[in-house]
């Protein structure tokens, strides 16, 4: 199935791939990149107050000459300059040069001030006033959604979250909770295995699938996210990559492909957890070794430690530190 639209709980439809403006910076280059994305066929632009390029995106939107109904525009309340939600959306609309956005999100639960129910009431007003067709959230966990849903008159239409194979395990309960409550999931940073964690266990299955289907690894990852039934928010500064992203809508992975990527992601996630534990233990051992070393050198015992300080303690702690360091390098 090619990229399509997903029906939201408020009856509107959202294109299931978006071009994000987070890393574009500002100025003319930013407008050019949004221009490029629209010209290759992206009709869903994802921006935010905090990306500081809504104005540049707005110029590209205007220059595209597209009818407003043919573009889907998302922006987010990022709490910039301490402004409230109503003032912020009006600023965003001015920057973007549009009368409404299709989707307005609270960028992060900690920005929902003074608390989630009060902030959500303001979001409901934004929708009632016609400034946003749909309202939603981003980076909300299950506990945040529970608080919101307890008093919401309008359910959030979507929750935009981090989703890639190394976090899919821990994000699955959140995705399931959202789906059970008819809240769509938007996935960002799907390409992390290529951009930030190359050489990890996900590389193998992704490369194998890419070779078998004669496509690029990034296309496999986007197809993987699409197979999860989520809306993909991605980006690129390169025209060929953007064309590849859109073509990835035609890639249908088998359930086995998706499982292989999930399983490799789980292995990577376990390794990362092990690394974190080892790193923390190594730091603790190093601190102990240094304290033991200093105390041993100075020949005194600080009463707060209540430990028998000797050179052999310092030696043991140092050895433990190097063993942990070796383990960390191994993992
Ligand atoms: N709600 C939130 O809190 C957040 C939302 N977002 C949204 O999601 C959008 C996308 O986020 P982002 O993390 O950039 O998403 P992606 O994971 O989709 O990464 C996009 C980047 O991947 C690079 N890339 C593509 N293919 C490869 C490859 N084969 N090897 C190496 N690099 C590759 C591109 O680089 P190149 O330009 O060179 O092609 C591009 O910079 C943001 O713009 C924003 O709209 C993002 C983060 C947080």
TrEMBL record:
<protein>
    <recommendedName>
        <fullName>NADP-dependent oxidoreductase domain-containing protein</fullName>
    </recommendedName>
</protein>
<dbReference type="InterPro" id="IPR020471">
    <property type="entry name" value="AKR"/>
</dbReference>
<dbReference type="InterPro" id="IPR018170">
    <property type="entry name" value="Aldo/ket_reductase_CS"/>
</dbReference>
<keyword id="KW-1133">Transmembrane helix</keyword>
<keyword id="KW-0521">NADP</keyword>
<keyword id="KW-0560">Oxidoreductase</keyword>
<dbReference type="InterPro" id="IPR023210">
    <property type="entry name" value="NADP_OxRdtase_dom"/>
</dbReference>
<keyword id="KW-0812">Transmembrane</keyword>
<keyword id="KW-0472">Membrane</keyword>
<comment type="similarity">
    <text>Belongs to the aldo/keto reductase family.</text>
</comment>
<feature type="transmembrane region" description="Helical">
    <location>
        <begin position="281"/>
        <end position="300"/>
    </location>
</feature>
<dbReference type="InterPro" id="IPR044494">
    <property type="entry name" value="AKR3C2/3"/>
</dbReference>
<dbReference type="InterPro" id="IPR036812">
    <property type="entry name" value="NAD(P)_OxRdtase_dom_sf"/>
</dbReference>
<feature type="transmembrane region" description="Helical">
    <location>
        <begin position="312"/>
        <end position="330"/>
    </location>
</feature>
<dbReference type="Pfam" id="PF00248">
    <property type="entry name" value="Aldo_ket_red"/>
</dbReference>
<feature type="domain" description="NADP-dependent oxidoreductase">
    <location>
        <begin position="17"/>
        <end position="264"/>
    </location>
</feature>
